[in-house]
Design goal:
Blueprint lengths: L9 E5 L4 H12 L3 E6 L2 H13 L4 E5 L5 H15 L4 E4 L16 H26 L6 E5 L12 H21 L5 E7 L20 H5 L9 H11 L11 E4 L11
Parallel strand pairs: 1-2, 1-4, 2-3, 4-5, 5-6, 6-7
The protein binds nicotinamide-adenine-dinucleotide.
Nicotinamide-adenine-dinucleotide (NAD) binds next to helix 1.
């Protein structure tokens, strides 16, 4: 076994209080990283912080709505005062429910909110994390996008647009921040089951039908750890020659040819 890259590294995970973000926080912490969870759900954030600290891991929760510039600035100030530098920023926070109704009934406020959280949020976090990332030896940004950036179900306008925008933002940031030595990549997850990674009152036991499993060439629905393992690699210096890229992690669902 090679030595972990992550002891003495500080990783900021937005939306890290639940779901895929919490799954990543857990794996990074297991590898020795200090994890900062930034989330707008205070209750979930406190539970996540306590759960990680209870296992002896280094974890800090900071309440932050990533769509609000002043809150992102305050978050980065707090991280800077406590840790001085940031080795990786993982832009994972998102409104994860893609359905907002048919085009004629779409509420523009809901559309704008989705874009503000899922797309403006990562831009704001990248901007205000940059001075901290510049203090690190091998800084990285990882954006959590979605296979819905590349394909759609009906009535998912804002979500698909936000994730398509995040894919484009990934290469725009990668090229721009290369001057600052910051690598920027994305992971586009498919169906990831997060029922067991929710705050206490929202937890549920996942139940998947045979059809649910078998529509994936991998034979199962994904889990947060599937994303976390790739995130560990992409945020480490082992991925030093990878920037501006997006990796689809969906058990093969999006490459499966369907003849109806
Ligand atoms: N689960 C999936 O199947 C799946 C698939 C593709 C992409 N994704 C993406 O992965 C990311 C995580 O999804 P998830 O399924 O774990 O969702 P989740 O709802 O379980 O977790 C999202 C977390 O983000 C937080 N959050 C929401 N809005 C926020 C804001 N404005 N500021 C700060 N935090 C905020 C929530 O409080 C929550 O803790 C999202 O960006 C989602 O779009 C998920």
């Amino acid at each position: 076994m090679s030595e972990s890259y992550y002891p003495h590294k500080t990783i900021l995970i937005t939306g890290g209080a639940q779901g895929i973000g919490l799954g990543m926080a857990y794996r990074f912490a297991q590898e020795g990283a200090t994890v900062v969870i930034a989330d707008n759900d205070e209750e979930a954030g406190r539970q996540a912080e306590q759960w990680l600290q209870g296992q002896g891991y280094q974890a800090l929760f900071v309440r932050c709505d990533v769509s609000r510039e002043e809150e992102v600035q305050a978050l980065m100030r707090q991280v800077g005062e406590k840790y001085k530098s940031l080795d990786a920023l993982i832009n994972n926070a998102g409104i994860a429910d893609p359905f907002q109704g048919p085009l004629q009934e779409l509420e523009m406020a809901a559309f704008d909110k989705m874009l503000a959280v899922n797309l403006r949020g990562p831009l704001l976090c990248a901007r205000y994390a940059l001075p901290l990332l510049q203090q690190a030896e091998h800084p990285a940004i990882l954006n959590i996008s979605s296979t819905r950036a590349f394909m759609s179900e009906p009535d998912t306008f804002a979500y698909s647009a936000s994730k398509g925008g995040l894919e484009a933002l990934t290469h725009a940031l990668a090229v721009s921040l290369a001057r600052e030595r910051v690598r920027v990549n994305a992971i586009a997850p498919g169906w990831i089951e997060v029922g067991e990674w929710k705050k206490a009152e929202d937890k549920y036991a996942p139940q998947h039908t045979k059809e649910d499993r078998e529509q994936h060439p991998a034979g199962r629905v994904g889990e947060p750890n599937d994303i976390a393992e790739a995130a560990l690699f992409l945020c480490s210096d082992k991925a030093g020659f990878i920037t501006g890229q997006s990796i689809i992690i969906d058990g093969g669902m999006s490459v499966k040819m369907i003849y109806a």
